[in-house]
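Late entry, evening session. Most of the bench is empty. Finally got around to the prediction I had been postponing all week. Sequence below, unchanged from the version circulated by S.P.
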Amino acid sequence: MTALEGPIRAMIDATNREDSDGFVAAFADDAVLVDWGREFAGRDRIARWNATENIGVHSRIAVEGVEHDGARTIVSVRVSGEGYTGGGAFVFRTGDGRITRMEITG
């Protein structure tokens, strides 16, 4: 995962060790997370999403590839756990050492 920016790596590591505080800390206060079209704006809403859709269902994220496209980082992943399982991509934007936008796509 050396090609990943620090906050992206921190978010994935926090998910895999079920560290909700670390997960939320990776995001900027006004960050936006988009999960297949559903939008969660701000750390409080992202924390609630995390509790029901990510760490709350024991997700594990395996990075399969990383691509940089201008200001975006596209991370190909394989997700396992008790919620969604399968492949997909996370598209990130970062700024000031935090994730400012994360989009979950297929």
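Two things to note before I forget:
The mean pLDDT is 96.
The longest helix spans residues 6-16.
Will write this up properly tomorrow.
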